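Appendix B, example 12.
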Amino acid sequence: MKRDYFAQAKVTVRKQVAIPKKVRKKLGELTEGDYLLFYEKGNEIYIKKGVLTLKE
């Protein structure tokens, strides 16, 4: 059976997940304090490493 997904993570009781190594590698170096941005397109969610900016 063919997998349709790139990686998987299990949700903890506190609704947290560890970012799988394959995903971290694709996102580039992640360090404490970095932001991950979540985008919705249709019924799918995309994750991107990013910077939050404040609007006035």
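The longest strand covers residues 35-41. Residues 21-27 form the longest helix (7 residues).
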